[in-house]
């Protein structure tokens, strides 16, 4: 079998390399000669980057890239609208990626200077591709990877209906270490709240930044395209009210190497193939650049298609399966791009919650795929409650074994309004809290460091409680993770979690939008916290943790304090006699991936094994470099290394 690929961009080159690795005869045909600088740079998610990493051992040519850790969206007055952590996104120059690919292909596989003309057909199947220079390449399967203006696509299906060019984008590369170092890992974007105008920049290396200006196409009469000088004048006039760092970038930019993109897309095709010819990458599907999905999707296309050559011998099965696997996901990206365009062109109609972060958006996730669970449970807790920290292993085990039945609602109980007149049993002062934690740590053999109450005592538990309610507004699952992270900071790391900086740090580490969370803490979250306090009072809750199980209109069981796991199971089976415990067989590292960190005792508890056996398993994971450890004066907590 011989595969002929038309187009030596990201999709075509990736597919060519993957097929060569499978010992399939393949030829990649590229119209240009050498490496074009056009395109400058792009973002790529780890979905695509992880595929490229498999190529690293095969070449000495490095793939130069910059990891981007945060996305920040600000108004032009620098007020932050969105701040969120990005998980394994990379920015790289197109020229660097193409050089990397070229190093993996020899001259027999990569043919340059070939501009596609037409196919030669026999019995309705293509047998050869003909190029404008007269070259002819025969093959069995043909792949069109020739971009958004694909001639191969036109041959198969005729002209597609492109969307209107409503937004234009100007892209350049700026070299100056001060900006690159200042924004070392941040994708920074400034957005007008009055009209469709934005400026963004992303570090692409230690001393280079790719920048872009997006603007409503109606703002332009095309004059900016006449010369570099006109383009410079246009950008500076459009962005004159933006922050000074924007002007700094424009002043230093070489506009002779800056490009204007007319952004557009088209609907998902009903199929990506006809007989033995198929399309991949932008030739098959084109999303607006707002999604930052194009490069990653090109690589994912190539990887998905290459893997199917191992499963099937005929092109029809290969191409049909490829379409079924990829089309739904690609259609969602196209729709997301269109939604982002609406938000961009009509910023006055949307609040901060209307923004979608490229490919990391989970807005509305609280309502997606909601499953009604038969047993409602109110969990009254507090971020500074040591007993609530000790109950964490039980909550985790309930999730592993009875999650299908339990709908647990977290409610903040307001344990520490302030120290003024505070009197909770043996605790009346911060030093009392410090001693209580030390006693609890020894009694239950769980790491607890009470020194925070001596070194930097919290004056109230209300700020982190309100922060939790703000997190719930974004995502209920991430809010639980956020609460756990706040507790880790407090109980293990001696951090004063009433401090805004630590709250923001915890929010970002859990994938929450910290800018919106901090705003919600001043408004809606306060109201929700007050609702929790009223609910606590109505149910006469005076100690934490407290669980109320609702088994129907009239059945209610309350469980207070630190209780055995068997007691929880007893109540579950009393209220739901048909409840069946999940049979668990979890690979140890998967447990760390699920919960991020554990003590040895917690690991043993979740795995139903002795502490001694648990420690042996944990040490083995540590020696393999899969987990790390945090030493605490009262014990060790083991942490999933990728989450540090």
Q: What would the CATH topology of the largest domain be? A: FAD/NAD(P)-binding domain
Structural class: alpha+beta
CATH level 1 name of the largest domain:
Alpha Beta
How helix-rich are the residues, as a percent range? 25-40%
What's the domain count?
A: 3
Strand order of the largest sheet: 3-5-4-12-13-14-11-15
CATH architecture of the largest domain, by name, is: 3-Layer(bba) Sandwich
What integer is the average pLDDT? 91
Radius of gyration (CA) equals 29 Å
Which descriptor suits the 3D outline? globular
Number of helices: 22
Mind explaining what this structure looks like?
- With 644 residues, this protein is α+β, with helices and mostly antiparallel strands.
- The protein folds into three domains: 2-65 and 92-163 and 264-336, FAD/NAD(P)-binding domain (3-Layer(bba) Sandwich), CATH 3.50.50.60; 375-575, Glutaredoxin, CATH 3.40.30; 588-643, Winged helix-like DNA-binding domain superfamily/Winged helix DNA-binding domain (Arc Repressor Mutant, subunit A, Orthogonal Bundle).
- It contains 22 helices and 24 strands.
- The strands form five sheets. The chain has an eight-stranded mixed beta sheet with strand order 3-5-4-12-13-14-11-15.
- α1 (10-21) packs parallel to α3, α8 runs antiparallel to α9 and α14 (462-474) packs across α17.
- The two termini are 47 Å apart.
